Amino acid sequence: MQDGHFRKWVMSNDAETDRFWQQFLNLYPEKRGVIRSARAMLRAMSILQATPDEHQEIRMWENISARTGDVVAEPEKVPELNVSRRYIWQWAAAASVVLALCFLGWYLNGFSTERASHTYAAQVEKLHNELVEHVNATGKLEKIVLPDGSKIELYPQSRVSYAPNFLVEKREVYLTGKAFFEVIKNDKKPFIVYANRLVTQVVGTSFMVTSTSEHEPARVAVKTGKVKVFTISAYHKAGNAVPEETVLLSPNQQVYYDPQRDVLSKTFVPEPAVLKVPEKYPEFLFENISVAQVFETLAESYGVSISYDAATVAGCNLTAPLGNEPLFRKLDIICQTIGATYQVWGTEIVITGKGCNLH
Amino acid sequence: MDPSISYEETLWDALKHGNKDAFGTLYKLHYRQLYGYGNKFLRNTQLVEDAIQDLFVHLWNTRESLSQVHNVKFYLFRALRRDLVRLAEKSRRFEDIGDELAEKNQPERYLFEEEEQEKLLIQKLTRMLRKLPERQLEVVTLRFFDNFKTEEIAAIMGISEKSVRNTLYKALTHLREQTHDLVPFIELIFLLSIVY
């Protein structure tokens, strides 16, 4: 078997059980289907495995943080780390991930704001009721076409408003509730969605905004194109100029807004879609392909960033038909096969493992 | 990579020196598996969450006196299990593995031989695994899912290596007996034989 993981398994021999299984090995020398069975076993086990959702992850970490004091440790107490040079890049990688995601991707806009004035109602009222308003009081999706041709799918119990002179300067929409936007591209006139305390700015793209009130967590998830999201306080900080504190979202990414802390956190959408069908492996059918190549294919197809160090995949080859499995299932299968684990840090997938070379 | 010092050991060392970033990274690397493992034998999500939090808080509070650890995952699993057993005894809520995830993967009724066979096998295995006694499932999970060695499993569960092997043997024999009607299981047996 080329696959390093299997070789590793062969190596970890255990005399007692080995004797018992040995006869089967003699009876069935063909190796056909072994991978399929391995996959089945691992998948059966992963079905039984409980996984925490991101809220649990964040909740646990918040509690841990709160109980272990401030994140900013007294620097004079931290001695020089004895890290040899070969690990510096790892540290740099770890540090940049930690920086970028700042413990679970939260980042403060560090701006205390008068919260009362950012509800949908207040925003709409400020505009002297000059707005066109759609309220979806039905139980079904409602489709709205804006004057510029952009489309909104408005969910039940949601409302949107926009100015009658929608096209004049900016394309601005006010939302409370949930809506999917398909925006016609217009570089000169950015399309802006105000959803309570979240501001989403795009040029041309499709995305979902969920924000039921200013006190509820809100979400923006991107299907195509690039989207910028601000907290309303960050958005207003520099007048209408583009503020420095923004979250830039690509397809398959989403941002959560935590109203209590007025912070945004960037993650993947729960089920990332294939953005680009891989040319070389159209069905994600890999036959004795290096795992580095497999990860590269996944990264490109799903538009995600997968990072690992060379040792993690050294000597690892994969044979598996990954087909239509969701991205994270694909990763489960690969990682189980090469004895690695993956973690999702915000919008980065980090693989750790020991590689498949025998020591 | 220098096999004597792993990335995680470097993190561990940094944690000992009060590096909170390293602490956060260790959490990120392990909370998911710890959670999965914890829920395996304690069907009380809240208790498991609490135990994981306590574990990391304790880690941080005692960081200066932590010993050098070669396998962080092993250390954390063992510590979590100890805490959970204590918690469970305290609240007398040691419960069986749940089957809330039970019929998530319902059989789909189209037949493409290979695919269908694999699906059937997965379902069957899932069912069989779920029926295993708690202890057997724990050993099987630690061995196959979490990739621990026999001696590590023994240390995590506080039992002898011999009983780990016996438990594994029992579990696999049970699986074999229950799955004999499925052709691909022959292949699975083969696979398992390689494993040992």
List keywords for this structure.
heterodimer; A: 359 residues; alpha+beta; Phage tail protein beta-alpha-beta fold; Jelly Rolls; 2 domains; 14-stranded mixed β-sheet; three-stranded mixed β-sheet; 10 helices; 19 strands; disordered N terminus; B: 196 residues; mainly alpha; Rna Polymerase Sigma Factor, Chain: A; Arc Repressor Mutant, subunit A; 9 helices
Tell me briefly what this model is.
Chain A has 359 residues and is of the alpha+beta class. Chain A is built from ten helices and 19 strands. By secondary structure, chain B is mainly α.
Structural commentary:
Chain A is of the alpha+beta class. Chain A has helices at about 5-10, 15-25, 35-50, 55-65, 90-100, 120-125, 230-235, 290-300, 310-315, 325-340, and strands spanning about 105-110, 130-135, 140-145, 150-155, 160, 170-180, 190-195, 200, 205-210, 220-225, 225-230, 245-250, 255-260, 265-270, 285-290, 305, 315-320, 340-345, 350-355. In chain A, the strands form 3 sheets. In chain A, strands 1, 2, 3, 4, 5, 6, 7, 8, 9, 10, 11, 12, 13 and 14 form a 14-stranded mixed β-sheet that branches. In chain A, strands 16-19-18 form a 3-stranded mixed β-sheet. Chain A has a two-stranded antiparallel sheet with strand order 15-17. In chain A, strand 5 and strand 6 (about 170-180) form a beta hairpin. Chain A is elongated. The two termini of chain A are about 15 Å apart. Mean pLDDT of chain A is about 70; it is low at about 1-30, about 70-115 and about 240-245. Chain B has 2 domains: about 5-90, RNA polymerase sigma factor, region 2, helix turn helix motif (Rna Polymerase Sigma Factor, Chain: A, Orthogonal Bundle), CATH 1.10.1740.10; about 105-195, Orthogonal Bundle (Arc Repressor Mutant, subunit A). The chains are: A alpha+beta (about 350), B mainly alpha (about 200).
